[in-house]
Amino acid sequence: MKIIVLNGSPKGDISVTMQYVRYIQKKYPQHELKTINISQNINQIEKDKIVFEGIIREVRESDGILWGFPLYVFAVASQYKRFIELVSERNAVDAFAGKYAAVIATSVKVSDRTAINYMNAVCDDFGMHYVDSFSPHMDDLLQEDVRNNLLMFAQHFFDAIAEKQITAKNFQPISWQPIRYQPEAGFKKLDTTGKKVLVVTDSLENENLKKMIHTFRNSFAQDIELVNLTDIDIKGGCLGCIRCGYNYECVYTGKDGFIDFYNEKILASDVIIFAGTIKDRYLSSLWKKYFDRSFCKTHTPVLDGKQIGVLISGPLSQVPNLREILETYFEYQFANLAGFATDEYKSSRKIDKEIYALAGRVIQLAKQGFKKPKTSLGVGVWKVLRDEIYGNLRFPFVADYNAYEELHVFDSFPQNNVQKLKHNDAMMSMLQDEKIRREIYHNQLTISMISEIKKVVDDPEL
Questions:
Q1: By the 8 A CB rule, do 278 and 241 touch?
Q2: pLDDT of the residue at 427
Q3: What is the pLDDT of residues 172-191, one digit of tens each?
Q4: Closest CA to 77 of 11, 170, 5
Q5: What is the DSSP code (8-state) at residue 374?
Q6: Rounded to an integer, what distance in angstroms lies between the CA atom of residue 83 and that of residue 8?
């Protein structure tokens, strides 16, 4: 059978992901796995309709589609995202409908789940038969058991196609009929209290989003700066070249306006409002390009202490994966996500109130220096990154390693709470006695869990 591999890596054939595909091809020579380098050639694909139509023809003539890509900031690369947008914009979805699909996504295991969920949802929206995903660590092909499982994954995919197996729909279609948002006046003007507030958007073509931005900015007595990403000279998306790994020097340095914008606007602000429109289970590919290009600071949390608000036009409540991506990103960046405001309400007045409440909240939290504790999203990302930068990725990510040392990220790696370790050793020894073990687990354990923190609660000086 003929499988079209849509390669989402900007590095083309030399990507890690494509080595997994090549291994499948080597072991299954009876099938043709034809690779098309989507992300690497996205500019040509977008500009030349003949090239685009050639890809769509290959899709139509295939037996199945293998979406192969590396993780780029919790999702696919912006170039890949743009191709997915083009499929809808150029009415080519029908070429994918009914095709069997699978995903191979390589990463260092930082939120690969959200990237897979995104592609699964796209496949469901395109009317495809989504079979399964395979998400190895980028180096896992070196392990025999992973190679064996990779081949079993491929065989399951081939079998599903040959047997025309029924596949589950994991994501329901989005139903969205927005109201025409008409802002109303009447709120008391807020004071920024000297905090630098920045609103960043990717477009003002969506009237609802445009008016939402106006309502937010109009909530303040002071002028609130607005930057449209379309006005920034951004030559292209992240290339995955990792030249930034040594000292944050991006391959685009001096070649476009993104890095100056990021340093002079984003990093200089106390409060940042991200405003965008939902587009095929994410925001726009331009917003994805922004997040990918912010990797010029690699894995270092440069938004530490900033208050973040998000204005979204679209059914955010129906796209929880997008919400998780954004929540994870800002937790990983040590920023505080103050909240979202959307145009999902059925009255303009409620949208007004939500936006005004968000405006008041980001300023109040900025004044207080408030930061929520990380959830499992942020904690999980940081445990993975701590381990990787300490070990496997110390080279080439030298800048991260130096930053992590200054931030004391490695202080808890390995576990170095000597007092706790000694206590645990003593308890493990005591548990060998059945009578003591029963007393501890039946009568003492639950109360002992709060004994230390209860001292803080009961201390009148604290």
A1: no
A2: 84
A3: 999 999 999 999 978 999 99
A4: 11
A5: P
A6: 9
Most distant pair of Cα atoms in the chain: their distance: 79
Q: Output the pLDDT for position 421.
A: 76
Helix H or strand E encompassing 60: helix 49-60
296 C-beta neighbours (distance < 10 Å), count: 20
Kind of pairing between the strands at 129-134 and 100-106: parallel
- DSSP summary character for residue 373: P
For residue 103, which of 118, 93, 92 has the smallest C-alpha distance? 118
Tokens standing for residue 198: 């920045």
Task: Judge contact between 151 and 24, C-beta under 8 A.
Answer: yes
> Considering Cα of 343, then 347, then 352, then 353, what sign does the dihedral take?
negative
Within a 13 Å sphere around the CA of 120, how many CA atoms are in the beta-carbon half?
19
- Runs of H (alpha helix) within 392-458: 398-406, 418-430, 434-439, 445-448, 451-458
What's the pLDDT score for residue 415? Answer: 67
Alpha helices, DSSP H, located in 312-450: 320-332, 348-368, 376-390, 398-406, 418-430, 434-439, 445-448
B/e letters for 97-132, b = 16+ CB within 10 Å, e = fewer, are eebbbbbbbbbbbbbbbbbbbbbbbbbbbbebbbbe
Q: What is the distance between the alpha carbons of residues 153 and 143, in angstroms, rounded to a whole number? A: 15
Q: How far apart are CA 402 and CA 245, in angstroms?
A: 11
Helices H, strands E: what count in the chain? 17, 10
Instruction: Write out residues in the chain with pLDDT < 50, as ranges.
Output: none
CA atoms lying within 13 Å on the CB side of residue 68? 31
Assigned token pair, 97: 């409908």
Contact 385, 110 (CB under 8 A): yes
Give residue 387's identity as a one-letter amino acid code: D
Beta strand 100-106 pairing with 32-37: unpaired
The single residue listed with the structure tokens 């000279």 is 233
Q: Where in the sequence of the chain do the CATH 3.40.50.360 domains occur?
A: 2-162, 197-371
Taking alpha carbons only, the member of 307, 306, 297 closest to residue 404 is: 297
In sequence order, what are the residues at sequence separation of 6 or more whose Cβ sits closer than 8 angstroms to the Cβ of residue 373? none
User: What's 343's DSSP letter?
Assistant: S
- The top-level CATH class assigned to 197-371 is alpha beta
Q: Determine the distance from the C-alpha atom of residue 404 to the mean position of all C-alpha atoms in its chain, rounded to a whole number.
A: 21
Strands 225-228 and 271-277: unpaired
CA 343 vs CA 41, 191, 314: distances in Å: 36, 24, 6
Pick the CATH number of 2-162 from 3.90.1150.10, 3.20.20.150, 3.40.50.1000, 3.40.50.360: 3.40.50.360
